[in-house]
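Hey team,

Filing this mostly as a record. A colleague (T.K.) asked me to run one chain through the structure pipeline before their review meeting, and I want the input and output archived in the tracker in case anyone asks later how it was produced. No errors, nothing strange. Just documentation.

Input sequence:
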Amino acid sequence: MQINSLKKDVICSYLAMPLTKELSDKALCVVTAAGIIIGSPIPSEKSKDINTMIGFIGNNNAEIFTKYKENKGISNKAKLPGNDGFFTLKDVKLVSGTTTSDFDFIDIFFDQVIAVTLTQK
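Output structure:
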């Protein structure tokens, strides 16, 4: 049986929060060794709107994820074990020291996260 780490489960819980009506005004704030990353989570499943960059990236990530599981013999319905895997944020700000960088999207690997919280968009 493949088990997620507690860290991964906590991060996934926070990822779902801004997708709810009650917390739709919040963004995810992730602390990593590279700095503080603030952005809006996007669902990991395939997007119907492939004509947008976010839709394209989401579909590409879903395809990579599916092929990875297939190559490793992991059931498509099974979760990746431990801290393996990543999540995607859009409308991203990376704050590192006194420098702020903006990105349309970023993939963050679970094992790189130090802390997570919600903040205002």
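Quick notes for T.K.: The domain at 6-120 is CATH 2.30.30.100 (SH3 type barrels.). The helical segments are 6-16, 53-72.
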